[in-house]
Amino acid sequence: VPVFPTEGAMMDNRFATALVIACVLSLISTIYMAASIGTDFWYEYHTLSPAENVSEAGRSIWEEFVSKDADEKTYTDALFRCNGTVGLWRRCITVPKNSHWYSPPETDMTTNCISFSLSDQFVEKYIEPGNHNSGTDLNRTYLWRLQFLLPFVSIGLMCFGALIGLCACACRSLYPAIATGVLHFLAGLCTLGLVGCYVAGIELLHRKLPLPEDVRGEFGWSFCLACVSAPLQFMAAALFIWAARTNRKEFTLLKAYRVA
């Protein structure tokens, strides 16, 4: 929402336009961040023949995948075999709808997902995934925790910035928009940190568990939404700060001119 300066000064059209654009960018980036957090396509695995992979041996793998006791290696192997997708909160695999041993092979597939519990988000990662005796991998452990916390910090900062903007609007002052811009800048840093942590975590995981030859991995559209959100936050921050500082400077010069 555009805010207005005090002392009876009229806001220049360019400042009003900058604030409107900043508000639109802020809204779009918030929507993108919320969508990326709530969807499961941060990273996708594409298997050449997923239906064949879910054989008598593979069937037990996806059954362990949905188990609460599944460790990192177990569910990662299932993601490799069954066209898996991974989000910040859930992991999913694609399996035949009818998977009984007496049923003929079928191509009618369905997606099964299971959520990461809150304890899963803070669980330790091991140097050898699945081997609890190999010691804690501190790099992957803290990258995993940061990629869970940073998006919520980012959204929280933007919401707090919006609250400051509404208060500034009620007070008819443009100067608090600087605080809104700073908060959006910090939110952009958090989003950028989230993207970096996720990429680093995936790369470190694949060094421990290399992709099979017939499996291709790529970042999904949920990840792309987060990547787009960061520059939108930075642009909104720059417009908020520019409009507030420039308008304040011009008002000060105008006031000094009138006094003179």
From TrEMBL:
GO cellular component, as recorded: membrane
InterPro entries xref list: CLDN1 (IPR042356), PMP22/EMP/MP20/Claudin (IPR004031)
Bilayer topology: Multi-pass membrane protein
Protein keywords: Membrane, Transmembrane, Transmembrane helix
Domain of life: Eukaryota
Heme as UniProt keyword: no
Annotated transmembrane regions: 15-35, 148-175, 181-202, 223-244
Protein location: Membrane
PANTHER family: CLAUDIN DOMAIN-CONTAINING PROTEIN 1 (PTHR14347:SF3)
Name of the protein this chain belongs to: CLDN1 protein
Gene this chain is encoded by: Cldnd1
